[in-house]
Amino acid sequence: MNLFKYSAPSSFYPLAGKLARGFAIVSVLLLVVGLYMSFFVAPTDYKQGEGYRIMFIHVPAAWMSMFIYVIMACWAAAGMIWRTRLSSMMASSLAPTGAIFTFIALWTGALWGKPMWGAWWVWDARLTSELILLFLYIGYMALESAIDDPRRASRACGLLALVGVINVPIIYYSVQWWNTLHQGSSIKMNEGGGLDASMTDIMLWTLLIMTFACWFYTIAVALTRVQRIILERESNTAWVKQMLQQREK
Questions:
Q1: Euclidean distance between CA atoms 170 and 76, whole angstroms
Q2: In the chain, domain spans
Q3: Measured between alpha carbons, how far is residue 12 from residues 16, 86, 211 in Å?
Q4: What is the predicted pLDDT for the residue at 215?
Q5: In the prediction, which pLDDT does 192 show?
Q6: What's residue 193's pLDDT?
Q7: What is the pTM of this model?
């Protein structure tokens, strides 16, 4: 099976549609299971009480906000190095979802911070660097829409993505590098190699299920969005015109 043929937008377009439907179904199922476990199965935390349950939304959103930016930067780099049109399209398709997850992480973090810290927002190192990540996503989308030529826009956005990726390790290691209010890693290991006592097995499984739900959602939405981008950028090609004509019949 020659996978390289799918690097062409004309070959990838129908595949993206098929994959998007499958990932969407799985993401919905995982989300339903994850939310049920979050609110009805996971035990009450002995330190934070019921308020800790927002972690099952906040932590996956924060993880995805960083993960998506790294993947977006990789696609942008691939497009700049190998001059593949589909790579830049995939980078563009990921940016809005990454921005949404970053906003959710900041918003749920504020809801979590108010009862725990007594403030909706503090200029904590992790919070500030996560806010910068949101600005990077917004800047990427704004820059892309401001340049009419898709090739020039892809190069400019690619450079922005590659420069901005340095913020991701800053977000991750900020609680170790600086004295911050934000707690450390949500999943901690004790000296014996097992889970920290504050994280039970059911909490871990709930967190992982919610994370995979967000991951599959991201793939489904990105594939759906890249189909629209392909149609926009390849609108003058023969295969797009032929496909649209077949739809109209």
A1: 20
A2: 25-40+49-184+195-248
A3: 6, 8, 26
A4: 97
A5: 47
A6: 42
A7: 0.91
